[in-house]
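Weekly sync, protein design subgroup
Attendees: M.S., D.O., the rotation student, P.L. (late)

Item 1: inverse folding check
M.S. brought a backbone from last month's batch and wanted to see whether the design step gives back something sensible before we order anything. D.O. pointed out we never logged the input encoding, so this time it goes straight into the notes. Structure tokens as presented (368 positions):
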């Protein structure tokens, strides 16, 4: 049976780090609320239905999300997990979920193993930033939190943190192996040794190993990686275009980014054509992905990328095809970007413009 998983962003609660880096009280909602339309008909700011700007340290928000996901055929959430050699960010929502077994939702983690740097900029020089943060260090590299992997002891600490989640009946497992996505496995020089240790620890704790899923890197060779997952949209310039179309779009991209007159505008239908007909070369199972819509205006303003033509009707037409393709190829999972990426304009959650129509599209497609 095909299981639909939605990527899940936990940055909807106040943290001391975000207060320091982006200003007191910052959450994802801050940039969403302050977004501005950049051309006629541009839907910004996007407003959640009934202006429900939830706080993920409120258990009622979790209950609402879980009930909504189940109602509309979402099997579970793939929660972004941020771990920096023992230092964590945005961990409270997942810990709250773990401690409330009554919340009926399946979930797994996607380890977003990237350094945090100051890349959010609306194009007018404003970055929501106080003057005393790490981005103003002498090197000028805008580093907020450096991603490091450490040694065997650090890997064991990381595993032991994850273990209570793995043991949770709601945590998604494949053949008695807890599923863990890694966003950039190719960046981990100690990957093989680390995964070997994790597999041994998992077996010691009653599992048959860990079901490691490589995100977007289909060719990385490591026998500890079980499968691939696609996080969409992928690089638009590298797939789905002939030479002249690619050259034209790159020239437009360069011009407008230099002028800062408009964001990069791409076609939603082109993105979906890429998703549906892209060719893959991997010896591992590859789970398809798709994107609800895409508009990074809240985070990047005029520096953003927007996919034009995204709407529930178009989403339904295309996801029907992707679901059918996944079923015909006996795929176990399909990953949707995303449940609540409001800052990137790809949220399944109901908004004031489309209400529940994106969710209804999924439920209708699954039933069909």
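Designed sequence read out in the meeting:
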């Amino acid at each position: 049976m095909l299981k639909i998983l939605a990527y899940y962003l936990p940055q909807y609660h106040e943290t001391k780090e975000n207060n320091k880096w982006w200003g007191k009280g910052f959450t994802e909602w801050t940039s969403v609320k302050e977004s501005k339309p950049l051309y006629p008909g541009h839907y910004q700011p996007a407003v959640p239905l009934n202006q429900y700007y939830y706080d993920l340290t409120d258990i009622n928000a979790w209950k609402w999300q879980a009930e909504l996901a189940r109602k509309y055929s979402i099997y579970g959430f793939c929660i972004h997990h941020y771990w920096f050699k023992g230092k964590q960010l945005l961990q409270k929502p997942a810990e709250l979920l773990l401690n409330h077994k009554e919340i009926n939702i399946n979930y797994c983690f996607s380890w977003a193993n990237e350094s945090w740097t100051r890349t959010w900029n609306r194009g007018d020089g404003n970055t929501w930033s106080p003057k005393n943060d790490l981005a103003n260090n002498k090197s000028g590299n805008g580093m907020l939190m450096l991603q490091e992997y450490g040694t065997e002891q650090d890997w064991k600490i990381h595993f032991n943190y994850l273990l209570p989640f793995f043991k949770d009946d709601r945590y998604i497992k494949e053949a008695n192996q807890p599923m863990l996505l890694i966003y950039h496995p190719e960046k981990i020089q100690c990957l093989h040794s680390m995964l070997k240790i994790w597999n041994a620890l998992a077996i010691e704790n009653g599992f048959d190993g860990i079901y490691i899923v490589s995100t977007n890197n289909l060719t990385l060779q490591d026998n500890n990686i079980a499968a691939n997952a696609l996080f969409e949209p992928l690089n638009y310039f590298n797939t789905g275009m002939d030479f002249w179309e690619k050259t034209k779009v790159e020239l437009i991209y360069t011009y407008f980014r230099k002028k800062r007159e408009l964001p990069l505008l791409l076609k939603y239908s082109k993105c979906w054509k890429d998703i549906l007909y892209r060719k893959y070369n991997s010896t591992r199972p590859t789970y398809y992905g798709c994107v609800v819509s895409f508009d990074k205006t809240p985070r990047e303003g005029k520096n953003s990328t927007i996919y034009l033509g995204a709407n529930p009707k178009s989403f339904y037409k295309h996801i029907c095809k992707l679901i059918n393709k996944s079923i015909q190829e006996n795929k176990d999972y399909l990953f949707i970007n995303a449940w609540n990426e409001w800052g990137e304009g790809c949220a399944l959650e109901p908004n004031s413009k489309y209400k529940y129509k994106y969710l209804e599209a999924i439920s209708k497609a699954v039933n069909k």
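Discussion: Confidence is low (pLDDT under 50) at residues 123-140, 236-244. The radius of gyration is 20 Å.
Action: P.L. to compare against the previous round before Friday.
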